[in-house]
Amino acid sequence: MKKNILTIIIMAIVLINTVLTGFLIFVIVPTSNKTNELVTKVSSIINLELESPNEEDQISIADIESYPITDKLTINLASDDGTDHYMTVNVTLSENTKNEDYLALSEKVASNEDAIKEIISDAFSQYTKDEVKPNKEAIRTQILTGIQEYFNSDFIINVSFGNLIIE
User: Fold this and answer.
1) Which of 16, 43, 96, 119 could disulfide-pair with 146, CB 3.0 to 4.6 Å?
2) Which DSSP state fits 161?
3) Which residues contact 99 (CB under 8 A, 6 or more apart)?
4) Strand partners of residue 81
5) Packing angle between helix 113-124 and helix 102-111, nearest 10 degrees?
6) 3-state secondary structure 31-63
7) DSSP assignment of 105-146
8) What is the DSSP letter of 79?
9) Inter-residue contact 120 to 73 (CB < 8 Å)
10) What does pTM read for this prediction?
11) How far is it, in rounded angstroms, from Cα 97 to Cα 103?
12) Hey, is 166 helix, strand or coil?
């Protein structure tokens, strides 16, 4: 009698093991494979972004010339509380000396400085006192795009802000 109970317990354990193995094969393995495929796709995308840009897209520091805007700009900011707020900022433009438009347009930057100041002022004046610092990169991109559109060239590659004071 004890041998029959022991045999029944062993058969039950074998049956449970078979059911769990089937569950593992038909439920967990396909899900793991799908997760593995997703991780592989994500890692391939990350690897694409981590690749270094083309050599022609890289600009050497020796090929960049800075052009500081002569005056410190004082700009009225948008008002959110009924009081007037303004900011002062020094702006420097970075020019790519290897760009084909550099020789022709770099001399025109000084004569068009008032238009550049207006592009800068328009970009900053859309923001309130509290919005300027968090949106600094968006403002920089907007100014750079505006200047590049004004000159119809991308020889100006960056806009830098110095001594940014908001009051």
Assistant:
1) 119
2) E
3) 153, 154, 155
4) none
5) 70
6) HHHHHHHHHHHHHHHHHHHHCCCCHHHCCCHHH
7) HHHHHHHTHHHHHHHHHHHHTTSBTTTTTTTHHHHHHHHHHH
8) P
9) yes
10) 0.65
11) 8
12) strand
The pair phi, psi for residue 56, each rounded to 5°, is -70, -20
Each residue's pLDDT tens digit, 10-68? 999 999 999 999 888 888 888 888 888 888 888 777 765 545 555 456 788 888 999 99
Contact present, 159 and 91 (Cβ < 8 Å): yes
Is 165 in contact with 111 (CB distance < 8 Å)?
no
Distance between CA atoms of residues 77 and 130, nearest Å: 10
Beta strands 64-68; 156-166: pairing state: unpaired
Q: Which two tokens stand for residue 68?
A: 């500081």
Beta carbons of 139 and 127 less than 8 angstroms apart:
yes
**CATH number for region 61-166:** 3.30.479.30
Instruction: Say how far apart CA 6 and CA 69 lie, in whole Å.
Output: 93
The residue whose two tokens read 């391939």 is 44
Neighbours of 66 (CB within 10 A): 10
